[in-house]
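Collaboration report, partner site 2.

Our partner group contributed sequences for two proteins of shared interest, and the home lab folded both. The records are reproduced in the order in which they were received, starting with the first partner submission.
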Amino acid sequence: MTTNATTFARIALRAPASHRRARARRVAPSRRRSLNDDEKMFVPAGAFGGVSPERRASELMNAMLTYVSTWIVLAQLENVAPRRSVAGEDAGAAGEGEARRVTTSHEFLLDYLEANPVRDGDQWLIALTGVNPTLAERIMSVRRAYAEEDFEWHNVAKLTSESIATGNERAMREWLKSAVPQSA
């Protein structure tokens, strides 16, 4: 959607053709051809320490999915504990022991997550496995199932594109407000 502000910005910021051609000769092209003739933007190798932006996004998604999966397991443990407690009171000592174990796992995982924030999902799970392999395995299973079955990957692309468009428009609008004198 083109607004008057955006049109004004395009016209006001456009350099004369002679300057554009001179600049084009000085600046390296931002696109390059790959082996299959697809034109893609060139991302300098140092931008993410030598890894592609997609790889970096994958690492961030891995950490986020680990964090989300941990909260799914926490919710499962929280929902199981009250049912076990009620059944445990009627069933005697064995049921009460189960309720304490579930509640303890819930409290342990909350404390562990608070003391060890998820920055690298795989490293976080490796560390958790050393302390509580049962909970770590459960989180790994949930993480895989959530990523393969429940996470809406198509919505990520859509929401990101919408967010970028809105952010760009907002930034341009703010710049125009500061660049164009307001009439009184």
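Second partner submission, folded after the first:
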Amino acid sequence: MSLALTRRHEREGGFTLIETLVALALTGLVLSALANITSQWLPNWNRGMDRVQRSEALALALQRIAADLAAAEYVPANREQRQPLFDGSELSVMFVRTAFGPNARLGLEVVRIGETTDREQLVTVRSRAPFAPLLPAASPSEQLRFGDPVVLLRAPFRLSFSYAGPDRIWKSSWHEVGKLPAAIMLTVRDAATERVLSVSTVASVHAEAPATDGKPNGTGQNSTDGSKDGTKPANAASGQGGS
């Protein structure tokens, strides 16, 4: 009886210990190969996604900066000055525009876009201050209190500005000029290689002159008959009474 039972157990199907070990070894080889492939592919995929996200953030930042600069207005700092409140350097620009944004108050605001340090890194920040007539004796930077900072660009990107008038001659600064620049070039560089990126663009300023054309004494506004000094032309004056 015991011999027949033993033979019946031998005929039953199943895995032996050796077969189980071989199967486990093959499974381990397959999983190891998949892990190697994943370890090589996943970092590349993450770096690609990071580049795409940085490129999208950079494009949005440049669009916002260009829209800001295009909205610059010809507004003097006070009644004594005729030149617009605009100061541009290679790494920063300050100008006046109509207040815009969900928390902005009605009126004008002074906007500054420039490079500063945040957590030991160079960043491009947009800040603003309400516009009010400034004292002629002090510089605008001493009187304006900028707030609401918004980081637009972070490392490895650096932004620089160039300015041009209607002649399209580019300059690295625009200080105390009697008009606004016609165009502002936004140049983006890689901080590590100093390579100029293809996303660099040019913003056109819509307002280059004040809304009303006048002389400093205030007598230069156009009259209804087309003269610029408020007096009638000689031919018009001689023509009256002679008919």
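Feedback sent to the partner group on the second submission included the following. Residues 56-204 form one domain. The chain is about 30% helix and 25% strand.
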